[in-house]
Write the C-alpha cells for this entry.
Amino acid sequence: MKQEHVIAAFNRGRVSRYGVARLEVKRIALAAETQTNYVPRVLGSMSLRPGLEYLGATASNNPARMIPFVYSTNDTALLEFTDSLMRVWDSDALVTRPSVSSAVANGNPFVASLTSWTDNDEGSAASTFVTPYMQLVGDGTSAAIRDQTVTVAAADIGVVHALRIVIARGPVYLRVGTSAGDDSYVNETALRRGTHSIAFTPTGDFNIRFFSRRIPAAWVTSCAVEAAGTFTIPTPYTSSTIRASMRTDQSGDIIFVACDGIQQTMIERRANNSWSVVYFEPEDGPFDVINVTPVTIAASAVTGNITLTASKALFYSTQVGALFQLTSEGQIVTKSIGAQNTFSDDILITGVGTDRTFTIVITGLTATGSTVTLQRSLGTTGSWVDVSGKTWTADTTETYLDALDNQIAYYRIGVKTGGYSAGTIVCTMSIATGSITGVVRITGFSTATAVAAEVLSALGGTTATSLWKEGEWSARKGYPTAVCLHEGRLWWSGHSKVWGSISDSYLSYNPDVEGDSGLISRSIAAGPIDTISWMASNQRLLVGTQSIEFSARASTLDEPLSPTAFVIKPASNQGSGNVDVVKIDNRCVFVQRNGSRVYELAFDSRGYDYAANDLTAVIPEIGYPGIIRMAMQRQIDTRIHCVRSDGTVALNIQDRVEDMKAWVDIETPGSNGSG
C-alpha cells in the first residue's frame, strides 16, 4: 500500500500567529509560530544556535557598544565603548600595559614651568609654560621644540612603554627616539586635539620631542608613562549615546565617528597597541552662507592667536571651536623670518596708476647681515622672479608702484636661499585695494562682541569687515549625526544637510576648490528630516532620515558625484529608526521608524532606483519590544542579528536565490527570554 510521509521541516523560521493557517503558502507551510534557538540553514537541516564563548566583562560591567576595527582580514580588533571610556580587544584579549619604572619628569601635569624639558627652539619660535600647558608657537618655518630624555632601568629595557599624551590645541608633532630629534621608536607623527596612547619598546633611554612650526599656539596638557593594567582611553560618548547614536565608518587606520549632539571624532591606530581618540577638526570649512546683516567683525592681527571684535552682539559661548571665514577689505601680509628661503604670503595687485601702489615695512633687519628680496609673479601665483632693485639689508618703510597698468601681478617678500644670517626679520606688505580670505577658529568666549581665536589661514587685514561666514559645525549650530565614506569622499550629514569632502582629502571642506573634486554641500529639502539616522555607500549614496530614505546620484549610474552632478531623491518613505544601517552587497537593511520592523533597501531595475522591501512581512512582531542595533555575518549563511531592547536577538537568515527570509528568536541565559 502506497504511503505518504509528511515531513515538517520548519526551515523557514517564524510566522506570525495571524498567518499560521495559510498553509497553501509554501513558505508558511514550512514555518513555525514559535522557534527559539533553532536556526534554519539555506542548505541542509536546521540546528541549535551556535555556542557562545565568554571572553571577559565589560569595563565596570557597564553596558557596552562593540565596534569592529578591520584593517584587513588578518588585522582586526574590537573596540569596546562604555560610559566615557574605550578599551581594545585584540585576538580576544584586552590590550594591557606592563609595569615599568620609567617616568616623565614634570609632565603630568606641568608644574609652574617647563623644568626638565630642554629648550631647543629654532629662530623666532618659542616654547613656554602657559598655565597649565606646554605652549609651542612656531613662526611658520622655524619650530618651537621641547625635549626630555627619560631614563630606562635595566629591567625595563625591551619592555613595552606607552606614553599617555593629552593635547588641548593641536596639532603637536611628536618624535620618540634614542636621542634628541631621533624618531626610531615613534616616527614623527601629528597629535591632534584629544588623548593619545603611544606604545613603543625602548632598548635604552629614550628622548621625547614635542614641536610645532605653526604660528597659532599649540598646547600640550600632559605627558606621562602609562601605569600597568588594562589599557583605557577617555571618549566623549556616554552610556546613552553609545547604544543608539554612534555612527562610524573606517578608512585604513582611522575610524570616523558621528554622534548626535557631540563633535565628530576620529579613532586612530598607529599600531595594535597604540590608539588615540581625537576630535575631527577641518581647518577650511564647511561654511554657511555669507553674512547679509550689517554686523562687522574686526581682527586684532592677521596671524597667530588673536581677538575678534564684532560691531554688535554676535558671539555665543557655544561657538567655541567654530570656524569663521573673513574676507578683508584691503590686503595685509606679514611674515616673521628666522631662516633662509622663507617668504610671506602673496598680495594681488591689479588696476592702473597709483591704485597699484603698496607699502613695504621691514623691521629687525639692520645689522643682521641678511638680505630681504621682493619677488613678483605675473598672471598667476607661483612663477616667482626677483623685482629689479628691490632688495634691502636694513630696516625700511616705503611704497612701491610697479607701473604695470592693467596687468595681474602677485608679490611676496622674504629671504632667499643664502640670504639669511641672524635675527628675526619681520616683513609686511599692505594695500588698500583687493581682498584676502582667511579662516579662524574660536578658542575662547569673552563677551557677545569679543572672542579669542586662532588664525588657521592668514587674514588680509585688521579693518572691520562685513564679509564673513560662520562654520556649519559647532555646539551652537549642531554636529552631524551620520558619517560615510563614498566615492573617495568623507561624507557627513545631519540637520537636513549633507557634506562631502574634497575628493581624496577627508580633512578638507574648502569651498574655494573648483572643479569636480570640490566640496559638495547640499540641503535635503523634503519632509521633517532634522535628524538623519544613517548613511550608507552602495551603488548610490543612501541617506536614512526619520521620514524618508534618500538616494543621491549623478546624471548616470556610473558617474561619480560632483558639485555639479548631485541630485538627491526620495527612495522610500518608510522612515528610519535610530539604528545604524547594515550593508549586504548592493543592498542595505534598516530598522523602520517604529523601531521594530526591518526593511531592505535594494536597487530596483524597474524604477532605476532604490526601493524598500519589508523583511518582516510574515512576522511583523519579530522586533518587539524594539531593535536597538544590528550586525551582519556572511558565513555559513547571510544572517542579520537584530538585538532587541530586552537583551534577546531576532535572527534573520536570508538567501536571495532561494528567496529565503527566515526569522527565529535567539535567547541566552541572562536575557529576558526563557533563558
Observations:
- The chain has a mean pLDDT of 91.
- Residues 131 and 258 are 32 Å apart (CA to CA).
